[in-house]
Amino acid sequence: MPTLSVKQLSEYCGKTRETIGKRLDGVKFTEGAKAAKLYDSKTALEAIYLRGSNTGESEFIDTAEAQRQLTVARRDQITLEMEVTRKDRIPLDDIEAVNDRVFSNVAGLLKAQVGKTLTPELLTDLFTELRGLGDSITK
User: Fold this and answer.
1) Which domain holds residue 72?
2) What pLDDT is attached to residue 77?
């Protein structure tokens, strides 16, 4: 690939030299005549056009880094799918259904005792219902 100076890149891209300089910050260059910085054209153009807006909010990601991030995301997705397949991960809908049922039962038992004293039998029923929560989820 040909190497280009900041001035040449500025002319080709229609951007100011300052903008080109900011976008190329951190990109490897070689020394040219009269202390000119010469950049590989492919790398320089990726940095100029993929770096993001003029505010510099987004980070430049080269092809290798993008591929690495994609591989990591795929690994995480495969791990999640394997957990679901092995039934190591319980679906959230199932958890919410069991919680709703158990807490509705407990609330019903407590509402039936409004104004009354709690008996040992009622307390046993409440604790039995709450202890059964874990067993219901793992089934």
Assistant:
1) 62-89
2) 95
